[in-house]
Amino acid sequence: MDIIFFLLFAVSIVGIYLGVRRELAPVGMVAGFGIMACSITMILFLLQRVDVALQGVIFGLIIGAVMAIATLAVAWYFHTQEREQA
Fold first, then answer.
1. pLDDT score, position 85
2. Which pTM does this prediction carry?
3. Which domain holds residue 81?
4. What is the pLDDT of residue 22?
5. Distance CA 9, CA 3 (A)
6. Looking at the 3D structure of the chain, how many domains does it have?
7. What are φ and ψ of residue 33, in 5° steps?
């Protein structure tokens, strides 16, 4: 069951990247929903793997948010580079 949550996490990372690069929605909206989706899916993934639920929630929030913010930064960088070249 945990692999399903990890795949959903991967889908949300790809969704963030494509949402920013292709301007599918405002960046703030993509960031908000993306961080929330990544955090929730990482929490669910970690709750399947750890014995202490609080540990899964705390690390899920941290890891999910950090990965989403890193993806946002990379997507925004390439998006601005693409705009400067055009």
1. 87
2. 0.92
3. 2-85
4. 94
5. 10
6. 1
7. -65, -35
* Residues whose CB is less than 8 angstroms from the CB of residue 27 and which lie 6 or more positions away in sequence, other chains included: 20, 72, 76
H runs (alpha helix) in 22-52: 27-49
Start-to-end CA span in the chain (Å): 45
> In which residue ranges of the chain is pLDDT below 50?
none
Torsion of CA 47, 40, 7, 18, to 10 degrees: -160
The DSSP call for residue 25 is: S
**pLDDT of the residue at 55:** 96
Contact in structure between 72 and 12 (CB atoms under 8 Å): no
As to burial, measured by CB atoms within 10 angstroms (0-12 exposed, 13-18 middle, 19+ buried), residue 29 is exposed
Helix (H) or strand (E) holding 75: helix 53-85
The token pair at 26 is 């405002």
Q: Which two tokens stand for residue 64?
A: 């999910």
pLDDT of residue 86: 72
